[in-house]
Write a structure and sequence with these properties.
Layout: H1 2-16, H2 26-31, H3 38-49, H4 52-65, H5 69-94, H6 101-108, H7 111-143, H8 148-163, H9 168-196, H10 200-205, H11 212-215, H12 220-240, H13 242-250, H14 256-284, H15 296-304, H16 307-345, H17 352-374, H18 380-401, H19 409-427, H20 435-461, H21 463-481, H22 489-510, H23 520-524
Length: 538
């Protein structure tokens, strides 16, 4: 195990030396050249989206919800990659030289809105680091004599070692190598486990172990407790997560569409397959070690794979969590360098050397925080949905700010804070979710559901179709949710974040008579160093 870990992280570190510059450039450190080619970009996008949760939470979903559970995680995650690219084209059109989405929002609204977005990303990426390090600890603890703590520490310092010097360039280059390994290993391991169990016939015999809901491919329980909350959460991830925005601003503008379509297919194929491992475990009666669903995949690997394939499986999971962890470190450093220091402390006149130093210090501190949080060994699936719901409050304010000139800084700020406040009340049931209060939250959630479906329609079919779908679905969901959704706290809270932020944003924007000139954004968002290096991988 130690040799595998040393080989993986040592090899990745040596690979990162290929893009190391003696005199680092801050723009290259955050978004490479801004002209990254199709192959590297698509691989990096796919590898970043396939993270530890794609293994553990997909398997947990298949084990908990049966036939449809394995599909819910991979399918909705893949579709969210597809749905985001039209908005990504708009972000890139408005601010072709941006490093973070917060930088675009700063040019549109000012510091308060930008810092709200930056803070949500700092929180979300820190939790993402925790999730990936937690997965590493669980994997190492099950497959070796090493402890959970050993696995967490090795993964944390291993990822930091190859990301610290070259930042985003190291992240996308190693993503490419890691994805090639992940896909090759997944194609071998999943069928091998299936036939080690005895083939499809053994799984068919295990159907008797399923409850009625688990055996129903269209299970309402699976949809309301897993499919719908995750569907809502990953849209927020796609809009709010700096790791996604960073790749939008790094890839060549004309390659955004094919990059995201390719990532959609790659992600869906790998993750749905991994979700099937959880379903297989359920059908053959596997009991998670210590009652922890995070142990399902390591148990399946250790029980049904020969030693060589266990080693390959180990590299597969370590590669997936490392590819996302290094992206989180790059995202966190870019946020601190650009949103905190560049735009607020230095007021648009930063010292490039101080920016680089701050970026590297951020990576070190973030790794320490991620390691500390990972020591709590929290449930990965719960954390995933929770963070996605938090980001749900920013989705409508961000997107509307990029299309509608009347959205003001006050509207943006109040919408996000109001959405977060009502989300917190619903998620932790600070007020009883029944009677008049419960009905009010259910109606706000109905607006949130209409917003989610309306935004997706708007992305591909335009404003008129998007508004029509949004209004119609809000009315339909209001009738369906009334007196019912309060029993599904996670979904209620997630949709409340969307609905509340939308209502507040629209109401305050309609009260304003200002009309923003979007031509000002590219003038306000420029590179920090004019002599930007173009030596990055393309």
């Amino acid at each position: 195990m130690l040799l595998l870990l040393a080989g993986f992280y040592g090899g990745t570190f040596l690979l990162s030396l290929l893009v190391r510059h003696k005199k680092e450039n801050v723009d290259g450190y955050m978004v490479s050249s801004g002209r990254v080619g199709f192959g590297i970009a698509a691989a990096s996008m796919t590898a970043t989206w396939i993270w530890a949760a794609s293994f553990y939470a997909a398997a947990s979903s298949g084990y908990t919800y049966g036939l449809s559970g394995a599909i819910h995680y991979g399918l909705w995650g893949a579709l969210m990659i597809l749905f985001i690219f039209p908005f990504g084209l708009r972000f890139r059109q408005l601010a072709p030289n941006a490093h973070t989405l917060g930088e675009l929002i700063h040019a549109r609204h000012g510091s308060s809105s930008q810092l709200i977005l930056a803070f949500s990303n700092l929180l979300g990426s820190a939790i993402s680091l925790m999730v990936n390090f937690t997965a590493a600890g669980a994997l190492v603890a099950v497959l070796s004599p090493l402890s959970f703590t050993h696995g967490v520490l090795i993964a944390g310092f291993g990822v930091l070692s190859y990301t610290l010097w070259s930042g985003f360039r190291a992240s996308i280059l190693t993503d490419f190598a890691q994805l090639v390994c992940m896909m090759a290993v997944a194609v071998i391991i999943i069928p091998w486990i299936l036939f080690s169990l005895g083939g499809p016939s053994v799984l068919a015999e295990g159907m008797s172990r399923l409850t009625a809901e688990q055996a129903d491919f269209f299970s309402r329980t699976a949809i309301l407790e897993q499919g719908a909350p995750f569907f809502v959460a990953v849209l927020a991830y796609a809009i709010g997560n700096q790791t996604i925005a960073q790749r939008l601003f790094a890839v060549r503008q004309d390659l955004i569409k094919p990059t995201f379509i390719t990532a959609t297919i790659g992600y869906g194929a790998v993750v749905i397959g991994l979700g099937m491992l959880g379903l297989m475990a359920l059908l053959i009666g596997v009991v998670p070690a210590d009652g922890d669903l995070n142990n399902i995949i390591p148990q399946m690997a250790s029980g049904y794979l020969p030693p060589v394939l266990i080693a390959l499986f180990f590299i597969l999971v370590i590669g997936s969590l490392s590819s996302t962890a290094d992206s989180d470190l790059s995202a966190l450093s870019a946020i601190m360098m650009t949103d905190v220091y560049g735009k607020n402390i230095a007021k648009g006149r930063p010292d490039p050397r101080k920016m680089l130093l701050l970026g590297r210090i951020t990576m070190i501190v973030a790794t320490m925080i991620g390691l500390i949080l990972a020591s709590f060994s929290l449930d990965i699936l719960v954390m995933l949905v929770f963070v996605g719901a938090l980001w749900g409050a920013i989705v409508f304010p961000v997107i509307s700010s990029c299309y509608w000139g009347r959205v003001t800084n006050t509207a943006f700020t109040a919408a996000v804070l109001g959405g977060l406040a009502l989300f917190t009340i619903a998620r932790f049931e600070l007020l009883p979710m029944d009677g008049v209060i419960g009905l009010l939250f259910e109606l706000i959630a109905a607006v949130g559901g209409g917003v989610v479906l309306g935004l997706m329609t708007f992305a591909f079919f335009g404003r008129t179709a998007g508004m029509a779908v949004g209004v119609i679905m809000t009315l339909v969901l209001a009738w369906y949710f009334a007196g019912f959704l309060g029993d599904y706290t996670v979904l209620l809270a997630s949709l409340t974040a969307y609905g509340a932020s939308t209502i507040i944003c629209v109401a305050l924007s309609l009260m304003s008579k200002e009309e923003f000139d979007f031509a000002l954004i590219p003038q306000r968002v420029q590179r920090f160093q004019k002599s930007d290096s173009t030596q990055a991988a393309e």
